[in-house]
Amino acid sequence: MEHIILEIKENFGDGKIKMKVISREPLSDYQKEYMKSLRRDKAIEYGNLMGWIVLDIEDWV
What we know:
It is built from 2 helices and 3 strands. By secondary structure, the chain is of the alpha+beta class. It has a 3-stranded antiparallel β-sheet with strand order 1-2-3. Strand 1 (2-9) and strand 2 form a beta hairpin. The termini are far apart. The mean pLDDT is 92.
């Protein structure tokens, strides 16, 4: 299992939020950069399609 934290774009505006991605296989550099280019909801959607767990850790605070 791989656990990584990425800064993803907010749904609205130019801000960034931290999200945790949990996957069975290590993510490639391309996958990490692609995730960073997406907005929050699209990143969660893409992660689910790839079989990853994507958590918005900003909600934990």
